[in-house]
Amino acid sequence: MSSSPTATIWTDRARSSDALLVHMLGVVDFDSALFLQERLAYELAGRDDRMGGLLVCEHPPLVTVGREGSRSDLPTDLHDLRAKQIPVRWLNRGGGTVVHGPGQLAAYLVAPLERLGIGVVEYRRRLEAAVVDAARELDVPAERHPDHPGIWSRGRQFAFVGAAVRNGIGYHGLFVNVAPDMQVQRLTGRRLTSVAGERQRAVSMHAVRESLARNLASRFGYADQHLFTGHPLLRRTRKLVAQPQAAG
Fold it and tell me: Which of 7, 40, 71, 190 has CB atoms 3.0–4.6 Å from 110's, for a disulfide?
């Protein structure tokens, strides 16, 4: 995997590429990450090659609700969430309600599904398979649930999938609880866990980022990857966030 500090090549439409461009972004506010996804999706829609992009980041605390989610997923009153500075966003993506925060890894794979020869169901299946691959490398037992999207360990969920497709481009993606504040995570009342909690010891976020990015590239057939730290179009948040717990 080649690397570059901040440059990007995905605006050069005249240059054919089958590579996956991986951007490691750190902690990023949700709207900025969504802007980058939409910009990348627009660029990819105008190409005729297989080039894709992967945005890897963490978010300040917020709740997002997909098409399968509802207000009933949040037993906490919305006013209480706002008082805790935890906004709620309703999105046109698959999946249900997800609580985000530092210590949870977001991986947004933006890819030309038609040119990769896959559909929406296969897109989601490969996202889930990459999480299972990464979890096993980290000695965490992981499996797909027969009735619900996401990845589970010992009967508790630690990864969530919320995908969307527009103009043949897949975007949004998946979220993995590495070592978040589990008290915040359990706002939904579901049985949740984390990578650190299942390992019963501290886990390196860097190791999880590297494993997840590598396995996503493998599952989607990207042999050539370019690694970037940051992005020139990124508007970073100035919001202060609480530090996550070491385990859940």
Answer: 40
Q: Is 87 a domain residue?
A: yes
User: CATH number, domain at 48?
Assistant: 3.30.930.10
**In a domain? residue 180:** yes
Query: Which of 187, 175, 189, 192 shows the shortest CA–CA distance to 247?
Result: 192
- Is residue 189 one of the residues assigned to a domain? yes
Segments of the chain assigned E as strands: 2-4, 20-27, 52-58, 62-65, 88-90, 97-100, 104-112, 143-144, 151-153, 156-166, 169-177, 225-229
3-state per-residue secondary structure call for 83-140: HCCCCEEECCCCCCEEEECCCEEEEEEEEEHHHHCCCHHHHHHHHHHHHHHHHHHCCC
* The three-state (H, E, C) secondary structure of 56-67, written as one string: EEECCCEEEECC
Number of domains the chain contains:
1
10-residue stretch averages of pLDDT, the chain, 248 residues long: 49 75 94 92 94 96 79 71 79 81 96 95 94 96 85 94 89 93 82 94 94 97 93 64 41
For residue 41, the enclosing domain spans 2-8+17-229
Residue 53 lies in a domain: yes
